[in-house]
Amino acid sequence: MPFDAxxxxxxxxxxDRGRGDxxxxxxxxxxxxxxxxxxxxxxxxxxxSGSGLSIMEWAPIMGAVPPLSDAEWQRLYDLYRTIPQYAxxxxxxxxxxxxxxxxxxxxxxxxxxxxxxxxxxxxxxFWLRGRVPPGxxxxxxxxxxxxxxxxxxxxxxxxxGFEADRTAVSPWRLVMHLGLALxxxxxxxxxxxxxxxxxxxxxxxxxxxxxxVRRQVKAAAWLLAAAMLAGGxxxxxxxxxxxxxxxxxxxxxxxxxxWRLEPAWLNLAENVAAxxxxxxxxxxxxxxxxxxxxxxxxxxxxxxxxxxACLGLGAAVALQYALGVATLLMxxxxxxxxxxxxxxxxxxxxxxxxxxxxxxxxxxxRDPARPPASVxxxxxxxx
Length: 383
Known about the structure:
Strand content: under 5%
Order of helices and strands: HHHHHHHHHHHH
Low-confidence stretches: 5-20, 363-383
Number of domains: 2
Radius of gyration: 23 Å
Structural class: mainly alpha
Shape: flat
Largest sheet: none
Number of helices: 12
Number of strands: 0
Distance between the termini: 23 Å
């Protein structure tokens, strides 16, 4: 994986410089990843309730304080009444209606600030005490920078909803924001798993079967990522409000009007028929790949963490597919839509855990059962 650790070897005395420090750092990263998971769910609820455009100011510091006076509430409400969403969707709902959508968006932004504080504070604490495992500092700094970028991308997305004739954000910017959130979560979780979860080590004769299963899981993971991004486009244009039948779309496998927009690439993000079909297709392919990997693990691997992780991936994908179909057939009720988005992170978690548990391809001339020195160093630190 791109974030596989490259840690420093033991020092001249033969001692691990990161010994004993890996587990606390791994648990801290898991906690931050759990907060990001909650953030993804909260973002889904914010979008489905139409709350995302209620705060029209970008105030990273002072925005943490909610309105404390009637005058401040009125000022923010007057700002909101200048955008198309108010005129076309919420006109006349009054300041009490505004407060209902305001609080969800405020909570979403507040939680993002909390994630930043927990991550930056934890990083500073471990860094000053010399407890960051060797070789991990550049990656942790990169994740800090990407977290800050995510906040800026979030505002870039929200600002698109203030444009003329828009009542929602740009689907392209929504997918950018969602994709970066999932990437941050994956990087945090993968780094934590490197510090906490051991790979299984099959014997040399068993390695081809394990490698084959890992390739299947990896293919399923990439298809799942593609399906999640396609889901972002579907959410961005509310494609789930149409074609509420399954498996056919208005009685057709491929809906009529798939290529109706010009230029053709616009259909990927702005054509309801094409966007929903793409999400269905990628989700189905990803589910078949995940079920195939789980079946291969059940047949070819011995009982243990790796086999159970692959079976868990199959179960998580089955649940997600069922939630997706139910959400579509019920015309996207907010609670079910939010659960569907939150469960996507469970699927991503299961895929990463399965990949972590399965051994990687061994370099030529090395026993596949023997881990690299850098990974062994992390394992000893996690002990």
